Amino acid sequence: MTIGPDSATEQAYFTKGWYRFAYDPVLAQWIELTLEAARSAVAAPENAEWLRCGGTWFAGVNVLPNNAFGAVAGGTAVAGQAIDFVRGALGQTDPTWDRAQVSVVYPGYPLPMVSESTAAYHYRRDRDAAHLDGVLRVGPQKRRHLREHHAFILGIPMVQVSTDASPLVVWEGSHDIVRRRFRDYLRDTPPADWPGVDITELYQATRKEIFVDCPRVTITARPGEAYLVHRLALHGIAPWTTSACTGPDGRMIVYFRPDIGGAQPWLFAR
Predict the structure, then answer these.
(1) Is the previous residue joined to 215 through a cis bond, with omega within 30 degrees of 0?
(2) If 0-12 CB within 10 Å is exposed, 13-18 middle and 19+ buried, where does residue 103 land?
(3) What is the pLDDT of residues 184-201, one digit of tens each?
(4) Which of 20, 54, 98, 190 is 20 to 30 A from 254 in CA distance terms?
(5) Domain residues of the chain, as ranges?
(6) What does pLDDT average to in each consecutive run of 10 residues of the chain (270 residues)?
């Protein structure tokens, strides 16, 4: 797959902040060889801590036992059209694949968690727990700091589900607002010092602006398809609907988020 500077795919991705790739037999083979490892990771007792929201969400951060090529034991390196796009249009010619998240949603999501406030639960239910990856709550006061620098978010659906089974939610164009807001706020601070900057108020104000100015869209895909989300895009998980249908695996999606190499490229690279 060749991605040129005028590619419609490239234009769509950088305009909307996400793109869904069509069915790819290469990726479908990767799923076939990886699904059992993902199921085992979900069932492993040592990963039980990732079951959240009253048992309706297995967050599964970094639980897939893949290597730096995205391959599990007996599997193949992650490959296909989406990865070609990452290497071409995004310039990530040789990404080191992180251990992937296995995110599984079950009927009833979200139920309240004992550890979260009523306001936090309502935000999860009514605003899809909209968040920006890498902006973490730090310390006893849970203040927001930029601590992780992903290059992109690659979502790979592992099983067939109905389109209303807690799909991914993205606010289209939000990556441009995030870039502008963060650039202006941090312009006088060296990138090496950004992790120490409290950006709680900036983060909250930016989300509010996005909710007003950016359309909320749900993204669904079947196994063999994939979607790429811009690292600066606000995104979340839609609540489960009463009509949603899945198999025993629930709504299972594997997410890769390779590191981009620091705070400055995180904010300024395409």
Answers:
(1) no
(2) buried
(3) 999 999 999 999 999 999
(4) 54
(5) 25-268
(6) 62 97 98 98 98 98 98 97 96 94 98 94 98 96 96 98 97 98 97 97 98 98 98 98 96 98 95
CB atoms within 10 A of CB 59: 16
**CA 38 – CA 52 distance, rounded (Å):** 18
| H helix intervals, 130-262 | 174-186, 200-213
User: If DSSP codes are grouped into helix, strand and coil, which group holds residue 153?
Assistant: strand
User: Residue 235: helix, strand or coil by DSSP?
Assistant: strand
Q: For residue 5, what pLDDT is reported? A: 40
Q: Which amino acid is at 255?
A: Y
pLDDT in the model for residue 7: 87
- Is there a contact between 67 and 247 (Cβ–Cβ < 8 Å)? no
3-state secondary structure of 128: coil
Nearest to 227 by CA among 13, 20, 12: 20
CATH code for the part of the protein at 25-268: 2.60.120
Length of the chain, in residues: 270
Q: 90 by DSSP, 3-state: which?
A: coil
Give pTM, 2 decimals.
0.96
Question: What DSSP letter does each residue of 62-77 carry, written as one string?
Answer: T-S---TTSPPTT---
Encode burial over 193-215: b for 16+ CB neighbours within 10 A, e otherwise: ebeeeebbebbeebbebbeeebe
Query: Strand locations in the chain, DSSP E?
Result: 18-21, 51-52, 57-58, 101-105, 135-138, 143-146, 153-157, 168-171, 216-219, 226-229, 235-237, 251-256
**Which pLDDT score is estimated for 63?**
98
